[in-house]
């Protein structure tokens, strides 16, 4: 294995292969948080709309992916999972072990990424869609040759768009089932709460606003309040009151079991897709 030099933390160039919404969210977060100036970030796209989106906050947009790789120390593959193999193989001659490679493609395993790139200085990241508003839940898994310093650099990078955890890659299917697919479960819950408000007599706009803000507030309490969710629930549910009446209905319908089943089903599907 080649001697791996650490990436200079304050002076590296960051390149995105793929100029979609996730790449834009990460780049915007990195610039906004001051982790890197826009002048150190580049991507490639020929379409006017995507070029304009990146150029609007100072990112350099090139014509070819090969130019991005040549001009970057850290290369993030943010293309659709079904094209990752072709893209990595096409760029392989330029992907030396001096470059730290990162993939955010769902379901694409490190062993495959490493094989296609020709080396294992690769990090796999599973962010989720709230990256668009800076509150992603991202998990990183390190390839065989990725160093502790590499992991810390990528944690700092993705910390610009939310919270970051590190986990063994074998947990990534379960992570997909929970945080990857989880936002959709919460959107269903928000929609259902709003419908309940309308059924109880509230105007639609008020019901939706209250439902969304209530979920946001509850999540903030669970994240920052220092209490277990069960304790937070108990704090709201006074004896013989309105909340315990509602909770009773949720328990009768198997609410918790349904959510658990959703996570397990999505994790199972993620395993199936990554093996196909």
UniProtKB/TrEMBL annotation:
Q: Name any Gene Ontology BP term.
A: response to heat
What does the sequence similarity comment in the record state about its family?
Belongs to the pyrroline-5-carboxylate reductase family.
Q: Which reaction does it catalyse?
A: L-proline + NAD(+) = (S)-1-pyrroline-5-carboxylate + NADH + 2 H(+); L-proline + NADP(+) = (S)-1-pyrroline-5-carboxylate + NADPH + 2 H(+)
Q: Enumerate the spans annotated as Pyrroline-5-carboxylate reductase catalytic N-terminal domain.
A: 14-107
Q: Where does NADP(+) bind?
A: 17-22
Q: Where is the Pyrroline-5-carboxylate reductase dimerisation domain?
A: 169-273
Location (main, coarse) = cytoplasm
Q: Where in the cell is it found?
A: Cytoplasm
* A molecular-function term among this protein's GO annotations: pyrroline-5-carboxylate reductase activity
EC numbers listed for it are 1.5.1.2
Q: Show the GO cellular component annotation of the record.
A: cytoplasm
Q: Which UniProt keywords apply?
A: Amino-acid biosynthesis, Cytoplasm, NADP, Oxidoreductase, Proline biosynthesis
- Give a Pfam family name: F420_oxidored
Q: Give the signal sequence positions.
A: none
| Uppermost EC category | oxidoreductase
Which pathway is this protein engaged in? Amino-acid biosynthesis; L-proline biosynthesis; L-proline from L-glutamate 5-semialdehyde: step 1/1
What positions does the entry give for NADPH binding? 65
* Organism encoding this protein: Sesamum indicum (Oriental sesame)
The opening ranks of the lineage are: Eukaryota, Viridiplantae, Streptophyta, Embryophyta, Tracheophyta
User: What NCBIfam families does the database record attribute to this sequence?
Assistant: proC
Question: What is the protein name stated in its UniProt record?
Answer: Pyrroline-5-carboxylate reductase
């Amino acid at each position: 294995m080649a001697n791996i030099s650490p990436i200079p933390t304050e002076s590296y160039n960051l390149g995105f292969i793929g100029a979609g919404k996730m790449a834009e969210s990460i780049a915007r977060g990195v610039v906004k948080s001051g982790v890197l100036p826009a002048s150190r970030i580049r991507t490639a796209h020929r379409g006017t709309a995507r070029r304009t989106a990146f150029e609007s906050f100072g990112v350099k947009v090139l014509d070819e992916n090969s130019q991005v790789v040549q001009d970057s120390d850290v290369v993030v593959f943010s293309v659709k999972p079904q094209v990752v193999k072709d893209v990595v193989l096409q760029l392989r001659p330029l992907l030396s072990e001096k470059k730290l490679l990162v993939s955010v493609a769902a379901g694409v395993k490190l062993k495959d990424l490493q094989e296609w790139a020709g080396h294992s200085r690769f990090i796999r990241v599973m962010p989720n869609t709230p990256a668009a508003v800076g509150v992603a839940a991202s998990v990183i898994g390190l390839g065989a040759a990725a160093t502790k310093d590499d992991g810390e650099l990528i944690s700092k990078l993705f910390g610009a768009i939310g919270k970051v955890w590190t986990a063994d890659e074998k947990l990534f299917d379960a992570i997909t089932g929970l945080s990857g697919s989880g936002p959709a479960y919460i959107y269903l819950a928000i929609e259902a709460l709003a419908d309940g408000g309308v059924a109880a007599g509230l105007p639609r706009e008020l019901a939706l606003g209250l439902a969304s803000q209530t979920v946001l507030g509850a999540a903030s309490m669970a994240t920052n309040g220092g209490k277990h969710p069960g304790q937070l629930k108990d704090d709201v549910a006074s004896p013989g009151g309105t909340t315990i009446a509602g909770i009773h209905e949720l328990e009768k319908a198997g609410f918790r079991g349904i959510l658990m089943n959703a996570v397990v089903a999505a994790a199972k599907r993620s395993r199936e897709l990554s093996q196909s």
